[in-house]
Specification:
Strand order of the largest sheet: 1-3-2
Strand content: 5-15%
Radius of gyration: 21 Å
Number of strands: 3
Helix content: 40-55%
Distance between the termini: 28 Å
Number of domains: 3
Shape: extended
Length: about 180
């Protein structure tokens, strides 16, 4: 959502003032949140103003659905991006790009070991140096619960939509993603 605003802002700035565009492009990484929002607020594009309004007044996107990577329409990053483009082209008169947000794990569609990523449950040790996740260990059930939750979420995408979308639009998006009753 914010990435969209930044790209739109810089596209507009580049066409208006190329030297300011070059300067701000280098400085953006040093801006505070307030500076970023203030600079983005100078944009004349209504899409940017709409998203900034939502950020300012903390109107979150609502979860449309969580879809497993076993769905052949979304089993790779390329297919997810193609599907997102398909949704936007199919509903071009009804929905804007900033009203739809796809979130997926960093290595979506690939075999990953979530414990090797950021959380290694096997490294948890007690005061004797024994693994807490060992069979019969004091927190074996908790570790297994976490492991199962991580595995269940590692290959799913979450689709969020703007709170302004009506139910029929949400249903159409869901039908396109799942392939049900769509064509």
């Amino acid at each position: 959502m914010l990435n969209y605003c930044v790209s739109e802002y810089f596209e507009e700035l580049k066409s208006i003032n190329s030297t300011e565009y070059e300067r701000q492009k280098k400085e953006i990484v040093f801006w505070t949140d307030e500076e970023l929002l203030r600079n983005l607020g100078t944009s004349n594009r209504p899409e940017v103003k709409h998203v900034l309004f939502k950020i300012k007044f903390q109107e979150p996107y609502s979860l449309l659905g969580k879809y497993p990577g076993t769905n052949t329409r979304i089993n790779s990053v390329e297919r997810v991006l193609a599907l997102q483009s398909e949704i936007l082209s199919h509903l071009s008169n009804e929905i804007k790009p900033e009203q739809l947000l796809f979130r997926m794990p960093r290595k979506y569609g690939k075999d990953i070991n979530p414990e090797g990523e950021w959380l290694s449950l096997n490294r948890l040790r007690d005061e004797k140096g024994e693994s807490l996740s060992r069979p019969g260990g004091p927190i074996e059930m908790e570790v297994n619960y976490l492991r199962n939750k991580l595995n269940a979420h590692q290959n799913c995408i979450w689709v969020f939509c703007d709170s302004e979308l009506v139910e029929s639009q949400k249903r159409k998006i869901d039908e396109i993603i799942t392939g049900r009753n769509y064509q």
